[in-house]
Predict the 3D structure of the following.
Amino acid sequence: MKRLVLSAILLCAAVAAFACTNLIVGKKASADGSVMCTYNCDSFGFLQPLDFWAPGRHAEGEMLALHGWGPQAADRFIKQAPYTYGVVGLMNENQVSIVETTWGGRRELVNREGYFDYFTLMHVALQRSTSAREAIAVINDLVSEYGYNSSGESFAVCDKEEAWIMEIVGKGPGRKGAVWVALRVPDDCITAYANASRIRRFPQVKKVDKKKAFNEIEGVCMYSKDVISTARELGLYEGSDADFSFREAYGPLDFSAIRFCEARVWSFFRRHSDKAQMDAYLPFINGNTEVCDELPLWIKPVAPISVRELMDDMRDHYEGTALDMTADLSAGPYASPYRNQSTTFFSSDSTAMFRERPIGCQQSGMTMVCQMRSWLPDAVGGVTYFNMDDATMVAYVPVYCGITRVPQPFTYENNDILEFSTESAFWMNNFVANMVYPRWSAMIGDLREAQKELEDFYAEDQKAVEEQAAKLMPADRAAFLTRKTEAYTDQMMKRWEKLAKLLIVKHNDQTMQPSENGVVVRGRRKAPAYSPVFIDAVKAATGDRYVRPQ
């Protein structure tokens, strides 16, 4: 039996990059005909406020300063576009969205001399695109002219009609540009990315058009002209063009990429397909690649998916599956799906061990669900359901792509990772979350009540808001949607302050008082029950010590 084995040293080194999750839904796979994509942006000690760029016209010869990361932090300048579109978060005013997840791939392919890191690349592409296909072409143009300095990356590039997945990686030091492949997700399908390369073989053109900047089968596939030849030149591939696999050449899987990354994709698919069929992939999830060496790139869901269902998908911890994080002793006395332990660790006898890595996780700096709707004016049709911190622990706030300013709780000024503030969406969410994490089963019901209350209200209120906004002139529409987005955000902050106070009072001294409608009422305190799995494990470990005499 072939199993993927990874040394603890390599496993630990790789885990640091296992950061983000994207879920993608085609318009015929959604409940209302919208295209949707999601983003949990994950990294410990990190927060990500809501970005905003106003639209603008630019003079000939104007230059744009790129503010990169790390060694590339010094400004580098590129030609500014004649016109740039407004961007809120990771959606522009044309309802084009780009979200990402990093898979790293072969380290030797990183070119530190390139101008663009992946996040800057996404932002600039959004400012210059009217459609998903145009965004992909812009990405190619930018990295070809100025270079790419990040490692292997996957983008979900979506608009109000189409969803595309794109994988991109550099060519190594001294080689400008990047190699990439982009595939259109069938309209009736869903797919996902979770820090692993997923594209293997892809449709190829029969005859190359030398006038085009890249190869394209219109509406199906786009890819860089040198994606195969570069792999050959670097000694990463020797076979025929027809047998070429992007993943095997540039981002081959190991056990960590399967268990920590592909398992998240598997769980998303399982929630929206025949569970028995998806459980047939468990040998692969457990590292047995002899039985199976890949998940489907996309699947047709058994039923159309709503935006609320997609929000819940972003809060997944493998509940109800063989990987359920609430169902064993490591979940502790309160059956928590969260672990303080690092992803990899050692037992006292030096056995290398790991824990699960789900979609919902405490290290999220922000979370979003992007919804693009073709039947509404762009400013109304594009909504980013946004909040900061762990998707499981927050309520998604509707943020329309046509707004003209960011709500204060989501701004950079009010969100400092080193300074707690009650004006900060991140810190209010994080404050509540860190009360709930260690006492999950006791407290999560109170949080879910507040979460559902807000999201139910938003969903109902949006109907009237969008009907009214669609009738307004563009300037009035923008002002109206901005005020509504700010009101929604303010409502969230007030509800979360109320929740924080409830949790402190209701669960004082690790007991529970009764509550009604989010308010503690006088009544008999009780101790929250420990998980039966935990109680049985204590009994097994301690023998008769805690057995009451009869």
Summary: Confidence is low (pLDDT under 50) at residues 1-17. The radius of gyration is 24 Å.
